[in-house]
Amino acid sequence: MPVEFVEIPERGRVYRTARAVYLGDVDGNDEMHLEALGRFIQDIATDDAYDSGLRELGGVWVVRRYDLSIATWPAFRDILELATFCSGTGPCWAERRTRVTSASQVIAEAVALWVFADRAGGRPLPLGDDFFEIYGEAAGTRRVSSKLRHAPPGSRAVARPWQLRARDLDLLDHVHNARALEAVEDAVAASSPGNRIAHVSMEFRGALARETDVELLSETRPAEGGTELAIWLVTAGEVRVSAVVTTVPRDPAA
Fold first, then answer.
1. What gap in Å lies between CA 117 and CA 50, rounded to an integer?
2. CATH number of 15-139: 3.40.50.1240, 3.40.50.620, 3.10.129.10, 3.40.50.2300?
3. CB-based burial of residue 155 (10 Å sphere; 0-12 exposed, 13-18 middle, 19+ buried)?
4. Burial category of 162 from C-beta neighbours within 10 Å (exposed 0-12, middle 13-18, buried 19 and up)
Protein backbone atom coordinates (compact mmCIF):
# COMPACT_ATOMS: atom_id res chain seq x y z
CA MET A 1 0.00 0.00 0.00
CA PRO A 2 1.51 3.39 -0.99
CA VAL A 3 2.37 5.75 1.83
CA GLU A 4 0.04 8.75 2.10
CA PHE A 5 1.52 12.07 3.16
CA VAL A 6 -1.60 14.11 3.89
CA GLU A 7 -1.48 17.88 3.61
CA ILE A 8 -1.15 20.22 6.60
CA PRO A 9 -4.71 20.92 7.79
CA GLU A 10 -6.25 24.38 7.61
CA ARG A 11 -7.80 23.87 11.04
CA GLY A 12 -6.63 22.11 14.17
CA ARG A 13 -3.35 21.90 16.04
CA VAL A 14 -0.14 22.20 14.00
CA TYR A 15 3.07 22.56 16.01
CA ARG A 16 5.99 24.38 14.36
CA THR A 17 9.63 24.94 15.20
CA ALA A 18 12.94 25.69 13.48
CA ARG A 19 16.44 24.29 13.95
CA ALA A 20 19.83 24.84 12.38
CA VAL A 21 21.95 22.04 10.92
CA TYR A 22 25.27 21.89 12.77
CA LEU A 23 28.65 20.33 12.04
CA GLY A 24 27.88 17.06 13.81
CA ASP A 25 24.73 16.66 11.71
CA VAL A 26 26.46 16.44 8.31
CA ASP A 27 28.80 14.04 6.51
CA GLY A 28 31.87 14.58 4.33
CA ASN A 29 29.65 15.53 1.37
CA ASP A 30 28.05 18.32 3.44
CA GLU A 31 24.78 16.42 3.47
CA MET A 32 22.77 15.88 6.64
CA HIS A 33 23.09 12.43 8.20
CA LEU A 34 19.94 10.32 8.00
CA GLU A 35 20.09 9.79 11.76
CA ALA A 36 20.26 13.55 12.39
CA LEU A 37 17.24 14.23 10.18
CA GLY A 38 15.32 11.47 11.95
CA ARG A 39 16.34 12.91 15.32
CA PHE A 40 15.06 16.37 14.35
CA ILE A 41 11.72 14.82 13.37
CA GLN A 42 11.47 12.83 16.61
CA ASP A 43 12.47 15.85 18.70
CA ILE A 44 9.63 17.99 17.33
CA ALA A 45 7.23 15.18 18.23
CA THR A 46 8.53 15.29 21.80
CA ASP A 47 8.30 19.09 21.93
CA ASP A 48 4.71 18.98 20.68
CA ALA A 49 3.78 16.27 23.19
CA TYR A 50 5.04 18.35 26.11
CA ASP A 51 3.61 21.62 24.80
CA SER A 52 0.15 20.15 24.18
CA GLY A 53 -0.17 18.09 27.36
CA LEU A 54 -0.13 14.81 25.42
CA ARG A 55 2.55 13.44 27.76
CA GLU A 56 0.19 13.85 30.71
CA LEU A 57 -2.50 11.43 29.48
CA GLY A 58 -1.29 8.52 31.63
CA GLY A 59 0.38 6.19 29.13
CA VAL A 60 3.44 6.03 26.90
CA TRP A 61 3.68 6.44 23.14
CA VAL A 62 5.58 3.68 21.33
CA VAL A 63 6.52 4.10 17.68
CA ARG A 64 5.28 1.21 15.54
CA ARG A 65 6.37 2.33 12.08
CA TYR A 66 7.35 5.39 10.09
CA ASP A 67 8.17 6.49 6.59
CA LEU A 68 10.58 9.23 5.63
CA SER A 69 10.80 10.58 2.08
CA ILE A 70 13.69 12.95 1.31
CA ALA A 71 13.52 15.34 -1.64
CA THR A 72 16.83 17.09 -1.05
CA TRP A 73 19.51 16.82 1.62
CA PRO A 74 20.14 19.75 4.00
CA ALA A 75 23.66 21.14 4.39
CA PHE A 76 25.66 22.70 7.22
CA ARG A 77 24.02 25.84 8.67
CA ASP A 78 20.76 25.36 6.78
CA ILE A 79 17.74 26.44 8.82
CA LEU A 80 15.07 23.75 8.82
CA GLU A 81 11.46 24.59 9.55
CA LEU A 82 9.40 21.69 10.86
CA ALA A 83 5.62 21.39 11.15
CA THR A 84 3.90 18.40 12.78
CA PHE A 85 0.28 17.41 13.39
CA CYS A 86 -1.97 14.40 13.96
CA SER A 87 -3.15 13.09 10.59
CA GLY A 88 -5.30 10.13 11.64
CA THR A 89 -6.25 7.78 14.46
CA GLY A 90 -7.15 4.21 15.34
CA PRO A 91 -8.58 2.66 18.52
CA CYS A 92 -5.24 2.75 20.41
CA TRP A 93 -2.91 4.61 18.06
CA ALA A 94 -2.43 7.85 16.19
CA GLU A 95 -0.57 8.93 13.07
CA ARG A 96 1.79 11.89 13.18
CA ARG A 97 2.76 13.80 10.05
CA THR A 98 5.82 16.03 9.83
CA ARG A 99 6.96 18.30 7.01
CA VAL A 100 10.51 19.68 6.84
CA THR A 101 11.17 22.76 4.70
CA SER A 102 14.03 25.19 4.13
CA ALA A 103 13.64 28.55 2.41
CA SER A 104 10.09 27.49 1.44
CA GLN A 105 11.40 24.33 -0.29
CA VAL A 106 10.14 20.95 0.92
CA ILE A 107 13.10 18.95 2.20
CA ALA A 108 11.39 15.87 3.61
CA GLU A 109 8.02 14.37 4.46
CA ALA A 110 7.52 11.96 7.34
CA VAL A 111 4.61 9.96 8.72
CA ALA A 112 4.76 7.85 11.89
CA LEU A 113 2.35 5.51 13.66
CA TRP A 114 2.50 5.70 17.46
CA VAL A 115 0.67 3.26 19.79
CA PHE A 116 -0.66 4.53 23.14
CA ALA A 117 0.28 1.93 25.77
CA ASP A 118 0.21 1.23 29.49
CA ARG A 119 3.43 2.32 31.21
CA ALA A 120 3.83 -0.86 33.25
CA GLY A 121 2.90 -3.71 30.92
CA GLY A 122 2.88 -2.15 27.46
CA ARG A 123 -0.78 -3.03 26.89
CA PRO A 124 -2.42 -0.79 24.24
CA LEU A 125 -4.83 1.75 25.72
CA PRO A 126 -7.79 3.37 23.95
CA LEU A 127 -7.49 7.01 22.97
CA GLY A 128 -9.70 9.11 25.21
CA ASP A 129 -11.54 12.40 25.04
CA ASP A 130 -8.48 14.27 26.33
CA PHE A 131 -6.51 13.18 23.26
CA PHE A 132 -9.22 14.21 20.82
CA GLU A 133 -9.61 17.59 22.52
CA ILE A 134 -5.98 18.28 21.58
CA TYR A 135 -5.63 16.58 18.18
CA GLY A 136 -9.10 15.62 17.02
CA GLU A 137 -9.75 18.63 14.81
CA ALA A 138 -6.49 18.19 12.87
CA ALA A 139 -6.97 14.41 12.52
CA GLY A 140 -10.59 14.71 11.42
CA THR A 141 -12.32 11.42 10.68
CA ARG A 142 -9.34 9.79 8.95
CA ARG A 143 -8.72 6.26 10.26
CA VAL A 144 -5.36 4.51 9.97
CA SER A 145 -4.21 0.91 10.37
CA SER A 146 -1.42 -0.28 12.67
CA LYS A 147 -0.55 -3.24 10.45
CA LEU A 148 3.12 -4.00 9.78
CA ARG A 149 4.05 -4.86 6.20
CA HIS A 150 7.73 -5.81 5.98
CA ALA A 151 8.65 -9.39 5.06
CA PRO A 152 11.08 -11.41 7.22
CA PRO A 153 14.68 -11.96 6.08
CA GLY A 154 15.07 -14.24 3.09
CA SER A 155 17.71 -16.82 2.28
CA ARG A 156 19.81 -14.27 0.34
CA ALA A 157 20.15 -11.87 3.28
CA VAL A 158 23.74 -11.29 4.41
CA ALA A 159 24.39 -11.04 8.16
CA ARG A 160 27.03 -9.20 10.16
CA PRO A 161 27.32 -8.13 13.83
CA TRP A 162 25.91 -4.73 14.74
CA GLN A 163 27.63 -3.27 17.78
CA LEU A 164 25.62 -1.41 20.42
CA ARG A 165 27.34 1.52 22.15
CA ALA A 166 26.78 3.05 25.57
CA ARG A 167 25.54 6.31 24.02
CA ASP A 168 22.85 4.45 22.05
CA LEU A 169 20.77 3.96 25.20
CA ASP A 170 18.07 6.49 26.03
CA LEU A 171 16.20 7.44 29.20
CA LEU A 172 14.31 4.12 29.14
CA ASP A 173 17.60 2.16 28.83
CA HIS A 174 16.58 1.11 25.32
CA VAL A 175 18.30 1.90 22.04
CA HIS A 176 17.01 5.23 20.74
CA ASN A 177 14.81 4.89 17.66
CA ALA A 178 16.94 7.26 15.58
CA ARG A 179 19.97 5.01 16.16
CA ALA A 180 18.43 2.44 13.80
CA LEU A 181 18.79 5.01 11.03
CA GLU A 182 22.56 4.83 11.51
CA ALA A 183 22.33 1.14 10.62
CA VAL A 184 20.41 2.11 7.47
CA GLU A 185 22.97 4.73 6.52
CA ASP A 186 25.88 2.32 7.09
CA ALA A 187 24.22 -0.45 5.07
CA VAL A 188 23.54 1.90 2.15
CA ALA A 189 27.14 3.18 2.20
CA ALA A 190 28.42 -0.39 2.07
CA SER A 191 26.07 -1.70 -0.62
CA SER A 192 25.46 1.38 -2.81
CA PRO A 193 28.23 3.94 -2.12
CA GLY A 194 27.32 6.01 -5.20
CA ASN A 195 23.66 6.29 -4.26
CA ARG A 196 21.63 8.67 -2.16
CA ILE A 197 18.73 7.66 0.11
CA ALA A 198 15.35 8.77 -1.24
CA HIS A 199 12.88 6.91 0.99
CA VAL A 200 13.04 4.89 4.21
CA SER A 201 10.27 2.71 5.63
CA MET A 202 10.93 1.58 9.22
CA GLU A 203 9.03 -0.90 11.39
CA PHE A 204 9.62 -1.52 15.10
CA ARG A 205 8.55 -4.93 16.41
CA GLY A 206 10.44 -4.80 19.71
CA ALA A 207 13.00 -2.82 21.66
CA LEU A 208 16.76 -3.28 21.56
CA ALA A 209 18.10 -3.18 25.10
CA ARG A 210 21.41 -3.07 26.94
CA GLU A 211 23.77 -6.05 26.50
CA THR A 212 21.82 -7.35 23.52
CA ASP A 213 23.70 -9.23 20.79
CA VAL A 214 22.42 -7.83 17.51
CA GLU A 215 22.93 -8.90 13.91
CA LEU A 216 22.32 -6.66 10.92
CA LEU A 217 20.91 -8.57 7.95
CA SER A 218 20.66 -6.90 4.55
CA GLU A 219 19.57 -7.75 1.04
CA THR A 220 19.85 -5.57 -2.07
CA ARG A 221 17.34 -5.84 -4.90
CA PRO A 222 16.52 -3.79 -8.00
CA ALA A 223 13.67 -1.29 -7.84
CA GLU A 224 12.04 1.08 -10.29
CA GLY A 225 14.38 4.02 -10.90
CA GLY A 226 17.08 2.81 -8.49
CA THR A 227 17.93 0.21 -5.87
CA GLU A 228 16.00 -1.12 -2.89
CA LEU A 229 17.77 -2.33 0.24
CA ALA A 230 16.03 -4.40 2.91
CA ILE A 231 17.54 -4.34 6.42
CA TRP A 232 16.72 -6.23 9.61
CA LEU A 233 18.13 -5.83 13.13
CA VAL A 234 17.82 -9.25 14.73
CA THR A 235 18.51 -10.58 18.21
CA ALA A 236 18.16 -14.24 19.26
CA GLY A 237 16.59 -14.95 15.88
CA GLU A 238 13.87 -12.34 16.40
CA VAL A 239 13.46 -9.29 14.17
CA ARG A 240 13.29 -6.19 16.35
CA VAL A 241 13.61 -3.48 13.67
CA SER A 242 13.29 -3.64 9.89
CA ALA A 243 13.73 -1.14 7.09
CA VAL A 244 13.15 -0.94 3.36
CA VAL A 245 15.27 1.76 1.73
CA THR A 246 14.98 3.17 -1.78
CA THR A 247 18.12 4.79 -3.17
CA VAL A 248 18.82 6.75 -6.34
CA PRO A 249 22.10 7.52 -8.11
CA ARG A 250 23.91 10.53 -6.72
CA ASP A 251 24.17 13.45 -9.17
CA PRO A 252 27.91 13.75 -9.93
CA ALA A 253 27.47 17.48 -10.57
CA ALA A 254 25.90 18.10 -7.14
1. 17
2. 3.10.129.10
3. exposed
4. buried
Local confidence pLDDT in tens for the 254 residues of the chain = 578 999 999 999 999 999 999 999 999 989 999 999 999 999 999 999 999 988 778 888 889 999 999 999 999 999 999 999 999 999 999 999 999 999 999 999 999 999 999 877 778 999 999 999 999 999 999 999 999 999 999 899 999 998 877 777 777 667 778 888 999 999 999 888 888 899 999 999 988 877 678 899 999 887 776 678 999 999 988 999 999 999 988 765 55
Task: List all residues 6 or more positions away from 35 whose beta carbon is below 8 Å from its beta carbon.
Answer: 178, 179, 181, 182, 185
The Cα–Cα gap between 212 and 179 comes to 15
Q: Is residue 182 within a helix (H) or strand (E), and if so which, with residue range?
A: helix 179-191
Measured between alpha carbons, how far is 225 from 131 in angstroms, rounded to an integer? Answer: 41
Q: Which CATH architecture has domain 158-249?
A: Roll (3.10)
What Å distances lie between residue 203 and 157, 206, 233, 250, CA to CA? Answer: 18, 9, 10, 26
Among 161, 157, 144, 37, residue whose Cα is nearest residue 89? 144
Question: Could you tell me whether strands 79-89 and 15-20 are parallel, antiparallel, or unpaired per DSSP bridges?
Answer: antiparallel
Distance CA 100, CA 253 (A): 24
Q: What is the pTM of this model?
A: 0.92
